Amino acid sequence: MSAAMQRVEIKTWQRFTPAQRLARFAVYLALVIAIVASARTVEIIPEFLYDAPEQMQDLFKRMWPIAFYHYKEGVHEALVETLHIASLGTILAVIMAVPIGLLAANNVTPNKPLNYFAKLLLVSSRSVNSLVWALLFVAVFGPGALAGTLAIAFRSIGFVGKLVGEALEEANRGPIEALQSAGAPWISLLTKGYWPQVEPAFWSVVLFRWDINVRESAVLGLVGAGGIGMALDTALNLFQWDRVAMVLFAIFIVVIVAEIAVTHIRKRVI
After folding, report:
1. How far apart are CA 133 and CA 197, in angstroms?
2. Is residue 168 classed exposed, middle or buried when 0-12, 13-18 and 19+ CB atoms within 10 A define those classes?
3. Average model confidence (pLDDT) for the chain?
């Protein structure tokens, strides 16, 4: 008995296997290499870093006091236009994204070529930044709110369509099969089978996207696509830092109000 006990090996518990430890080390090593390569690629001028605190302090001094008097004559109309761009752009995006989301959901549209084509459209929309969309539409329609509205809309199609399509694919098949066995037409499957299940997710996606669009539309004016960004660009070009502070303060307040409004609406709707 004692000889058998002597042959028992004492095993120590280890959280990761050798293969897992090797994989973790490879990930850490890749991260270090990526950081070092990025630091060498990005040209950082040390002289600019040394006096950065002084430059920031000087900039804040120029911004204070905030030019609140400038709000009525130079900020209010641009701010309202920004909200219009975000709202109308979101509405247009939903109108265009819902049919694409229906085509992308393989349980709603059991056709692989149509599914892949719809997903290609959604990926194309998400892969182009809103500023790039704005530059394209400014070149086509000229500067103004129309270019900003279309930029917001086309940027949002991929976001809304993808999440709506995923919500449709996650819908419970029980009610759908019951409607199909009763001979319900396709439109009844959507309105009575899928819609009650995806309605909370749909409104959540729409509200969340509108909240994002309020933020994004605030900077589209930097490329001439209307909104408060144009007021910000004008103040920056003229070095009117107190007016720049007024514009930034207005954007900050609008973003906070939009966040609060979306939170309350979401609680009531969903």
Report:
1. 33
2. buried
3. 81
- 135 with 153: CB under 8 angstroms? no
Contact 270, 251 (CB under 8 A): no
Question: Residue 256 corresponds to which tokens in the numbers above?
Answer: 């906070």
Taking the CA atoms of 17, 19, 22 and 23 in sequence, report the sign of the dihedral they define: negative
Which pLDDT does position 28 carry in this prediction? 92
d(CA 249, CA 112): 49
CA distance 61 to 166: 50
The CA distance from 118 to 255, in Å, is 32
Instruction: Note the pLDDT of residue 3.
Output: 52
The CA–CA distances, whole Å, from 66 to 28, 125, 127, 146, 234 equal 46, 38, 38, 30, 16
**CA separation (Å) from 154 to 6, 128, 260?**
73, 9, 26
Q: How far is CA 48 from CA 40, 52, 55, 135, 160, in A?
A: 17, 6, 9, 31, 42
pLDDT tens digits, one per residue of 35-85: 888 877 777 776 666 777 777 887 788 878 887 787 788 788 888 888 888
